[in-house]
Amino acid sequence: MDLGLSEKVCVVTGSTGGIGLATARQLRDEGATIVTSGRSENGIGDLHVAADLAKRGEPERVIAATLERFGRVDCLVNNVGWAEIHRFEDLDDDAWERSWQINVMSAVRALRAALPAMQEAGGGAIVNVASSAGKRPSATMPEYSVMKAAMLSLSRLVADLYAKDGIRCNAVTPGPTATEAWLGEGGLAEQQGSRDEVLAKVGSGRPLGRLAEPHEIAAAIVFLCSARASYVTGAGWSVDGGTVAIII
């Protein structure tokens, strides 16, 4: 199936590992021109911009570098995210602010920088990576849950505001995924106890009985970027193994 992504310029933030890297690879396989970004100096993109996307000015710098090199941005995937295990009562103002900057403002800044170029070009596609925790809050990741709910609202807002310009904006909501965030040393699993026991429990809590693989989340993102999703906007697609029930 031709997804219509050949030669499209696609920016994927937070794309040096995990879901972002899998997304960049799949977009590249579809013939897209890829811009990767993250704190690492190395990336697989046709252009890679090392940046700390939680900082003011850094997402804008990624978009500016893209426009300087390629002259346009056809697709933007806001994938930057970060979570730790906390109790609600242990979170101070600094913790909430840190999560806000990483999980929400990184996307807001990238959007503000990319949207004018998309408007000028007559269209574009945006996918924001939220979380199933944005639909059903996680008691062990309270600030992360709230920020990902904000990402869902942001996605709907942008979809409504820019549909007239031919710009589509959607969100995906992954459940726990087999990335370093969960599997790595000191990651979300180890923060909750025995790594293997926690992973087994978390996996068995999904109707499909396991964690997602990054490429499975990436496949939904790439589809939403593509011409095949030309009538999809303002949606929050669950890619969570059936974790969050459909609300009718």
Main-sheet strand order equals 3-2-1-4-5-6-7
Poorly predicted runs are none
Question: Using DSSP, what is the number of strands?
Answer: 7
Radius of gyration: 17 Å
Q: Please, what is the average pLDDT?
A: 91
Which secondary-structure class do the elements indicate? alpha/beta
Quaternary organization: single chain
Question: Can you give me a brief rundown of this structure?
Answer:
The protein is 41% helix and 15% strand. The protein has helices at 18-29, 58-70, 93-121, 142-162, 180-183, 195-204, 214-225, and strands spanning 9-12, 33-38, 47-50, 75-78, 124-129, 167-174, 236-239. It starts with 8 loop residues before the first strand and ends in a 9-residue tail after the last strand.
Description:
The protein is α/β, with parallel strands linked by helices and 248 residues long. It has helices spanning 18-29, 58-70, 93-121, 142-162, 180-183, 195-204, 214-225, and strands at residues 9-12, 33-38, 47-50, 75-78, 124-129, 167-174, 236-239. A 7-stranded parallel beta sheet has the order 3-2-1-4-5-6-7, with helices on both faces. Helix 3 links the parallel strand 4 (75-78) and strand 5. The protein is globular, with a radius of gyration of 17 Å. It starts with 8 loop residues before the first strand and ends in a 9-residue tail after the last strand. The model has no long low-confidence stretch (mean pLDDT 91).
